[in-house]
Queue: 2 jobs
Job 1
Amino acid sequence: MDAEPDRWPLRVGETLSSHDWFPFYGHKFLSSSFLRRAVKQDRREDVGTALILWAEAMREDPAGTLPTNDIDLADIARFATVEEWLAVKENVLHGWVPVLVEDGRSGGTIERLGHSALIEEIVQDMYKRKRGRDAARDAGRHALKKHKIRKKMTEMGVEAHIIENDRAILALAEHFEHSELYITPDNVRAAMAEVLEYTGQVTPISSVKRN
């Protein structure tokens, strides 16, 4: 009985499509069995095709994988016909093996091709960095929203105890984040009524309305 393919570290939807570069581990490449075999067999053109596949894999979903279908692979590798692709397939896919990819939408897995020796470590590191940058960008955007809300509330003459209430401001910021409304006096006033149940009375808000 054949062993089940390894699972790829990234799931469907986890991509690096916005990146136009990726690190290249030169020492690993120069000492790889793929390069030695290509040179000894006088198939240096296979090196170029392999590099195209590695670069294209970074743009695939999930990052670092390739499809298993020869029609798709021929297209990705820039061959005019599937027959031309099949003539080099065995050599240029050296190191690529079937992997299972989790699909959160269906709850199942799909099979793709992955390269554990040269690609897997790269995409894991790059995706981790991407998530860190995304989180920092989201935090910065959220902080700016809270600042704008506080500034607008101050201009509107809202009581200081409301402006200084971190939970209230956080709830308002999340409201504007999800509604995509501009932070205007009218929208802030409406959000305070909807989210905080603010009536305009000078009374402390002991708790923020929870959804």
Job 2
Amino acid sequence: MSNVDKILVISSFPELMELAKEAIDGSIEVSYAPNQQEGLEKARKELPQMIILGFMEPQGSAFQLHKKLREGWITRNIPLLLVDIESKDHSHRVLSMEEGLQVEADEYISLPYEKGSDSSALLAKPIANLKERLKNRLKERANLLKEAILDPETFCVTWEQVPGRGAFEMQQEKLIEDARRAVGRGKVHAISVTDNPGGNPAISTEILCTEIKKLGIEPLVHVAFRDKNRNQCESLLYGV
């Protein structure tokens, strides 16, 4: 499930985590990963509100991780902030110039890291920008669905999607891509996701609907209680 109260910092430069903590002033939990493998695992497991990606060793690791985050259907829509750290003695650049031309990030900032510098205050601004942008996008789409339902003059359109059986397969990629197209065209008010279609086991709807909501469109979650006991049913509803 998406954790709206967590920021994930991925960098070989641990001071970046401390800067992030100072920037948000304890209002959000900060998680940290020092390398590409651990960063990718935490991003998939924790689904943070945003990812701050800084300098990583060896050179090129940050760009490789960025590509994996953007290619994965679970992580591709998590807002990404790239951070360079500059000092008199060292330059901790997150990407090379060539890599920077290919990157897909939501925000970028270069921070001084010297005694007396106000790096945490500088970092606070792009973090706040991403949080506000995400909040407004979700609020706007939710209001569109609510208004469409309540307005007798509006024909409310939902698009039903059928999930695939595996965790990583083409059907899941297609479902997320269809949801992205629906957001771009603005004619669909919500995406409806079926639960265990045809009585066959499939990836859970609450996971897919979490990703759909992060795209900026409201999900409608189907819940099937077949072959589930009371505890399982209650747990599923809590998850939704």
